[in-house]
Each structure stands twice: as structure tokens, then as C-alpha cells.
Amino acid sequence: MEIELYQEVALTRDLPEYGLRAGDIAVLVDFVPHPSNGEEGCVIEVFNALGESIATIAVPISVVEVLRSDEILAVRSLAKAT
Fold first, then answer.
1. Distance CA 56, CA 10 (A)
2. Is-contact 62 44, C-beta < 8 A?
3. Record's Pfam families (predicted)?
4. Theoretical Cys-Cys bridge with 30: which of 18, 43, 64, 69, CB 3.0 to 4.6 Å?
5. Is 0.70 surpassed by the pTM of this model?
6. In the chain, what are the domain boundaries?
């Protein structure tokens, strides 16, 4: 399935510098071309359980994937960056 703008996506790997883990949910808000023809990137916005924005970051497109019907959402405390 193709990823579209404003679609909810899941992280495919941990991003400890932001306190985020694989499986966390974000919203894809923009696509970013690589300046030297490398992997395309995207800008994602991450929200807490109350819907408050906690991070907006640029990541490689391979760091996100579309949500699937066989997945369920869960809640966890935000990890502290180390």
C-alpha cells in the first residue's frame, strides 16, 4: 500500500534521540526529496495520547509504514532520550 499525505503511519525502528520506538504512530505531513538522489524522506508529526503534538521530525521514508488491519494501538509512557 502506498503511503499518502496526512495518513497515520507506524515507525519501523526506534528513534531514541526523540524518545520514540518502533510501532509508535505518527502522521505523515510532507515528502522531502533527498538533495543528492538518495532515499526520499518524509516529515512526520507525533502526538501524545491526548492529541497534543510532541515532535515534528524529518526521517527517511523507510522509517515509516502504513497501518494494517491486523494491528492494534497501545499506550506507553514517552521514553526519555539518553
1. 14
2. no
3. DUF4926
4. 43
5. yes
6. 8-66
